[in-house]
Amino acid sequence: MLPEDIIIRPIVTERSSEGLQDGKYTFEVNKKATKVDIARAVEKLFNVKVLAVNTVHVKGKQKRVGRNVGMTSSWKKAIVTIDTNVSEKTYLAKGGKEVKVSKKYKDSIDEFMGA
Prior knowledge:
The chain contains three helices and eight strands; from the N terminus they run αβαβαββββββ. By secondary structure, the chain is α+β, with helices and mostly antiparallel strands. The protein has a single domain, classed as Alpha-Beta Plaits (2-Layer Sandwich), CATH 3.30.70. The strands form three sheets. It has a four-stranded antiparallel sheet with strand order 1-2-6-3. It is elongated, with a radius of gyration of 19 Å.
């Protein structure tokens, strides 16, 4: 699946807005997408580093309009935690030399709130 097919839309609620300070973003995703698919799609679309993905299957509710009774659609929600502390990593290479690697990731998703 393409990343555009996996991430359907962001979910902006009061509860999801509270998680933005911690780097937690909430999306409606394709029901067949796995956590690995969701992480790769978010990394590719928004150029951020994903630390964790939590998913929830939201069941449809029974709704009534007059005497007609129906069901709303079931959908899948993903809460994605991104790395908000972007810093350089150092490691030892051959010969004991220290090598610094700078991350080329953003520390927030600017497009989430429509900014």
